[in-house]
Amino acid sequence: MKKIKFRYLIMCITVCILTLLQYTMTTNAGSLEKGRILFISAYSYGWDTVQIQIEGIKAGVGPNVVVDYEFMDTKRVNDETSAQMFYEGLAYRMSQVEPYDVVILGDDAALLFAMEHQDDLFEGIPLVFEGVNDIELAKEAAKDPMITGVVEQLSVEKNIEFGLKLNPKAKKVVAILDDTITGEAERKNFYSYAEQFPNLTFSEINTSVLNTVDLRVELGLIKSDTILIYVVMTEDASGKQYSNNESVELISKYASVPAMRMVEGGIGQGLLGGNVVSMHKSGELAAGMATKIINGTPCSEIDVILESPNIYCVD
What we know:
By secondary structure, the chain is of the alpha/beta class. It has helices at 2-33, 48-60, 80-96, 108-116, 135-141, 156-166, 181-191, 212-220, 244-254, 279-294, and strands at 35-41, 65-71, 102-106, 127-132, 147-151, 172-177, 201-206, 226-230, 259-261, 273-277, 310-314. The strands form 3 sheets. It has a 5-stranded parallel beta sheet with strand order 2-1-3-4-5. Strands 7-6-8-9 form a 4-stranded parallel beta sheet, sandwiched between helices. Strands 10-11 form a two-stranded antiparallel sheet.
């Protein structure tokens, strides 16, 4: 009888220990996945590349991680009043919710905003950028131990080389650009390759200085000896604002040659494509960095990814 009671006691203790271990392991595993991330996009959700970034972020975080979203909408309105209103709204919303473990910043304007307000809005919060075109800005930001991320480097070189394979008789390369922050950064990047291709004449269609009618005319005047690369187009001099889909539709309709593209979006809707930055992969990589930080890795120990996640994508 005593042996039976003893065995029963041992069995109960064993069950209790196993249950406790299982609970501890489950709790620890769950805690590694829990966290709060804020994603700030420089643009709006209506911008198709932003939607792709968000899908990448969702793919890169655990199921128990909360991700909130804020949109600066600088493609539509980019002035001091809009920036101040966004700042005040974000400051209020952040004061009303639980603190965030990490902030992911989508594109150049979001990184600049976070750097400007790092001491008041984001004090002590690690910042992870993605989609940043200005490489020098990214490198400068990453000197801060609380900032890391993934650059977005549009490959002008690879796209021109690809364009020459498709059109060996090409004599010109024309970029479609505007005067936004992204446009200015990519303008410098575009013309930096002129010496590398001495047999090609480099020029641009600046949509910010052409009215709607003249823009359509310029696109129609492009000849077959030209490699056309659509970089960014959010406005024209008539005051018209373009979504990415509207830009793609206009270029596809009026350009007399197929337009190449250097980021995801618009391929399959009238653009030829080329060597593109994978916005999905950029978001996924940034989310992976944020997850590492949530799990205890210091931001300062996560190196900036300077090799842009580019792939070939052609319609």
